[in-house]
Predict the 3D structure of the following.
Amino acid sequence: MGWTTGHVGGTLPAGQGVQGWVAPSAIERGLYEAKARGDWPAYYDLVAHADLYMMQSRAYVDTSSGHSRFHPYWNPQTQTMCLAVYTAGMLPEPQPDPVYNGYTLGWFARVWEPHDPPYLVVNPGSPCEGVLPAGPEGRQLWQQHYAAVKSHGLAPDAIHTLEQGGPLSGQVAFGLAAGAHIAVANGRFWNSIAYHGCGYSDEKRTLERWWGVTTRQKWQDSQHRLLTADMVSGVWEFVLQLRRGMALDFAGPIEADHWRRAAENVVRRRAEAAEQPRLTPDGVTQGQPVSPSELEGQVTGVHRLIGRITRYEARFRADGLLPEGGYVRSVEAWDYGRASGMARWGLAARLCTLAEAEAAVVRAGRLVQANYRSWEDFSAAYILGRCLHFDEEEFGEWYETVLATHRVLTTDPASPWNTLPWE
């Protein structure tokens, strides 16, 4: 290809390494540009800022309690053994083995031993390749640049797009955009379907911590439940669907007191019906009576939930999440958005294949399109589900963070919500 190996002090020959190559993301483009102009301090700063992924044996990672192992390779240009690392846009499609874990330049500076290879190579074989000397002075330089960088990895609450290696249009892209709340908030490429996330080990730990998912079967069960909106509370959907039906019947806004009375009437009628014997294929089945205290508890709970929803919606309208007079019709969006995320997390943790992840993402996108009218409509529903689940009407971090993400997604011209057509 005609590019140099990127030793400190080297420059990329003018015009070489450009033709036919498009940087996958802003990370690699920045590295390439710094290398092309011979600005190695800037190159080091970019490497120090980036997540660096290193190949690992899956069997070793699964049995080594968090330890990592170097796998050097022979570099014919340096005529030495080298250790390869990759930035996020340069990672290959996830395979069952090997896997890639995420590290930082500071971590490599701390753990490097005298017998380790003399060079750390960033994105070997690409136009943005950099060969970083790993002797004592070299590692001191790594640490200096790492310490000077205020943040590491892609910035949260910003749109990060893979310009190569990720879909920019079509059904897969739409399904990934349905999970953009999570991707954007966490500083990930919104359109990465061949997903590595934070790295294999971290993705496994996150799935276990937040979802209890540790096996392929558990991932399949969670994915199915999210795609069927089975994790969203049935009580939430009951009161929202009731109001939606009333709004259609009355062709206008529904007052909260009217909504509460209607919900209470339905709850009481259902309790009465539950007490009656029922004819089933197995014969007559005796009803299941509801105790007076249990019934009153259900009524009180429904009243309280309606109050919470109306107060959240009032705040949503004040913050621009809903238009004046707007309301949320269903919070199934909370599950559909997370279903898109679950597909990628399962792939990163090697609990599913790329084809399975793509299928789940596409289905999530179709469900979003079928049940909502716009990205804004979907987002308000997703945020209400998140708040009902986590926020407890504090309007604190759980609300403020997702509101900030919503604003980025709806206002940034590079956002998939502004580049992908709804229909």
